[in-house]
Amino acid sequence: MLSTPPVHPRRKVAIVGTALSDCGRVDDATPYALHAQAARRALADSGLDRSVIDGFASAGLGTLAPAEVAEYLGLRPTWVDSTSVGGSTWEVMAAHAADAIAAGHANAVLLVYGSTARADIKARRRTANLSFGARGPLQFEVPYGHTLVAKYAMAARRHMHEYGTTLEQLAEVAVQARANAATNPDAMFRDPVTVDDVLSGPVIADPFTKLHCCVRSDGGCAVLMVAQEYVPDAAKEPVWVLGAGTAVSHTTMSEWEDFTVSPAAASGRLAFERAGVRPADIDLAEIYDAFTYMTLVTLEDLGFCEKGAGGAFIEKGRLLRDGGLPVNTDGGGLSACHPGMRGLFLLAEAVRQLRGEAGEGQVRKRNGRLPELAVASGTGGWFCSSGTVVLGRG
């Protein structure tokens, strides 16, 4: 008869190091170099020795990711993750890493990303992505010219049709993101824009004009997650991973049951339940914003407002740093940076805010205190996947 295995208590998991590489316009670095720069800075931020790292997560670079990137960084991890689900990859990886650390399968996991998406186009090493390929289920959409931005635009139009969401309300997302970027010295674009500026720009895919769409930048980011035993040796106060959830929805648009509901509806519910908090408890939100509609619908699906009420919710400056629910406090992908996949930057900015390290762009509660709870929610593909992570201070 098999004996019952011992039950080990789950360890708490904290983020103790985070950093960005050089971002924005970086013409003289490779993606590998940006990975390394971000990783070195995050490790320095943590105050821990690189020898503690036994887990590694990376996607988007190399033939054998993450093995190639780990080798470049001189790491020999015994736990790895190369999950690739688009922009939500890093929240999904963070969920995986948290589970692995909690279960004792890893002690310290480094998540790293780097891309020269902008520089590659400028140097004509690549062209802009018109599609993700023409194999498998996508073969039924590609012949019709259904590009990535067109998929998001179609979903936005459906929300406008169903709920009366207006172009002006969608434009407000871009306006408020730019206002938040104004206090971020690392943001790619900091000059203010108006609703009229957004609406009068060149059309990319109806109803999106240029300013409805994210910037294209270079840049890298790294986050170090560790077991609770390592926290006393860290250089700064920890930011704890309280709960996480993941979900996938569809690949082909014909299999998406409702264009007005993103998989964040599932990942967010799971994350909040596992963290033991409610959306009303959250002090700030970092949301994937490749397009303005993503911010609006994700706010609805995370439960910050009722379905269909996203347009009214974002009006009157609610998403600003000093608004009712600060969102994308660094300026987001619409203004700060968006080097291909932005999910890891959401975690980094949430940590920065909870630590009180955002300088002029720091979010404060009404009593003047630092925020205590944040949520980072990434979206992949064209609402194909979602990962949501709830973080807490203290």
Structure overview:
By secondary structure, the chain is of the alpha/beta class. The protein is 31% helix and 17% strand. It is built from twelve helices and eleven strands. It has helices spanning 31-46, 67-72, 89-103, 117-122, 148-163, 167-181, 195-199, 264-275, 292-301, 310-314, 332-335, 343-355; strands at 13-20, 55-57, 79-81, 108-115, 203-205, 208-209, 219-227, 239-248, 284-287, 373-380, 385-393. The strands form two sheets. A nine-stranded mixed sheet has the order 3-2-4-7-1-8-11-10-9, with helices on both faces. A two-stranded antiparallel ribbon has the order 5-6. Strand 10 (373-380) and strand 11 form a beta hairpin. Helix 6 packs across helix 9. The longest helix has 16 residues, at 31-46. The radius of gyration is 20 Å and the shape is globular. The termini are far apart. The model has no long low-confidence stretch (mean pLDDT 94).
Order of the strands making up the biggest sheet: 3-2-4-7-1-8-11-10-9
Regions with little confidence, pLDDT below 50 for 5+ residues: none
First-to-last CA distance: 45 Å
Strand content: 15-25%
- Mean pLDDT across residues: 94
Order of helices and strands: EHEHEHEHHHHEEEEHEHHHHEE
Shape: globular
**How many strand units?**
11
Helix coverage percent:
25-40%
Tally of individual helices: 12
Cα-atom Rg, whole angstroms?
20 Å
Structural category is alpha/beta
Characterize the largest beta sheet: strand count, sense, and whether it forms a barrel.
Answer: 9 strands, mixed
Protein name: Acetyl-CoA acetyltransferase
SSE blueprint:
Blueprint: E1 13-20, H1 31-46, E2 55-57, H2 67-72, E3 79-81, H3 89-103, E4 108-115, H4 117-122, H5 148-163, H6 167-181, H7 195-199, E5 203-205, E6 208-209, E7 219-227, E8 239-248, H8 264-275, E9 284-287, H9 292-301, H10 310-314, H11 332-335, H12 343-355, E10 373-380, E11 385-393
Parallel strand pairs: 2-3, 2-4, 9-10
Antiparallel strand pairs: 1-7, 1-8, 4-7, 5-6, 8-11, 10-11
